[in-house]
Amino acid sequence: xxxxxxxxxxxxxxxxxxxxxxxxxxxxxxxxxxxxxxxxxxxxxxxxxxxxxxxxxxxxxxxxxxxxxxxxxxxxxxxxxxxxxxxxxxxxxxxxxxxxxxxxxxxxxxxxxxxxxxxxxxxxxxxxxxxxxxxxxxxxxxxxxxxxxxxxxxxxxxxxxxxxxxxxxxxxxxxxxxxxxxxxxxxxxxxxxxxxxxxxxxxxxxxxxxxxxxxxxxxxxxxxxxxxxxxxxxxxxxxxxxxxxxxxxxxxxxxxxxxxxxxxxxxxxxxxxxxxxxxxxxxxxxxxxxxxxxxxxxxxxxxxxxxxxxxxxxxxxxxxxxxxxxxxxxxxxxxxxxxxxxxxxxxxxxxxxxxxxxxxxxxxxxxxxxxxxxxxxxxxxxxxxxxxxxxxxxxxxxxxxxxxxxxxxxxxxxxxxxxxxxxxxxxxxxxxxxxxxxx
Amino acid sequence: xxxxxxxxxxxxxxxxxxxxxxxxxxxxxxxxxxxxxxxxxxxxxxxxxxxxxxxxxxxxxxxxxxxxxxxxxxxxxxxxxxxxxxxxxxxxxxxxxxxxxxxxxxxxxxxxxxxxxxxxxxxxxxxxxxxxxxxxxxxxxxxxxxxxxx
Lengths: 439, 150
Hints:
Distance between the termini of chain B: 11 Å
Shape of chain A: globular
Shape of chain B: globular
Number of helices of chain A: 16
Oligomer: heterodimer
CATH class of the largest domain in chain A: Mainly Alpha
């Protein structure tokens, strides 16, 4: 048996947006294979949408993800409104941003406190961590709760909200309803600032990558709106040109498409990409928290995404308070439109990164074609590249430590995958035959 | 007293608890919360002064349609004969464990689950679960009666 052959694998990643496993095979310090294997059956949402009325799209795409349904709704309305030649009123834009802030708050808080922090503090789960870190977990739950309440106040319910529609909302809240949320938002803002300091103090594994960052480009911190996409090393390109810059391809080990730049380069989307590009556009309170955290920019260590995410929670809470304070209920909840033959793209920033939608619609009001590129699939190739890059560090570690380092790395990217990996089983395979065969 | 129903009504038998709750709500006798898959948010829903009857679908390899009734203490101590079908790792047992870790008291009330057999997309129950729905609703009604007189 050769001690040089090492296989690190997790065989089952359940309850994730894309079910899968990871597999890393080394011979000595050479990586033979690195796979993030997404094996969930295709869900066919793009096919479901074809032939459906354009008014149904927001409700259908909300079902793609239970954690970030707002992101799917916002990218959909952005694309469809572009196709229809309408733009939402300023007050509606503000409400959409507020709704999206709620989703960032609840999604990020879940990931930070219950999914990712246990890795840094040496616990198998958020439940185990709560025994020794009760105050911290209560803080996280307070933040998450107000995020959910914000989504419910604007979206009708916190999971798979139902109020977003083309042109605006089916109904808008009165100012008093939003003002009721203010005390809890203020408390959460204080909690979130504390969270930045807390996560910045975690012990981060020494690991850095030179990332190609991809995110929405806008004059404000990117969220619900933007006409261009920033690609580090290339510059900004229109959202409409997404597929002129980025190529999706199928790989044998995944039912989710991989995304790469046309030159074959993998890339990073999500909180680190956003922070690296747009930190000057953070809310002053978030920028202050970032500066005090000591986090070095640009962030090159993926494990530090937990700090980037924490800074974004501060930003979302501070923005939410500002939007509520300046809110005046619009006279109309939505803008009317007339269906026409057209196609258009739209992109927004989901908690996990850039979420691109493209639709071709008809004058009969039906969807003819739909294309959705979620951040999870865009990050797959980058995750595999990170696993390859971290491989040399694994050799000096015990097997369980090495596997944990890989899991922690994957968890840095995506709350759904991160959630599942807490339940993974690990198999060590030292294969004589493989060594003898020189595989 | 309130009933909280968990599950996904677009995944076959996973919608059974929601359907049972719907039937009970239509009788207008009990306050019902259709919680779906609230994840850790269930902790807030369980933070109730009165008793709670928590309904969910379980998948533990038993015969579809089997009904189990557990105290919350049994559920949190992991002696459930079935594994809960949960969302993103935060099913009822995990949420109760989290609550206990945070020093919160277990709610008064009970957990009632029905064994699912088919979790394919769609809102159709498997025949075995369909046949058991009347018994499931009766079990919940009986539990509510017990707790009301508690």
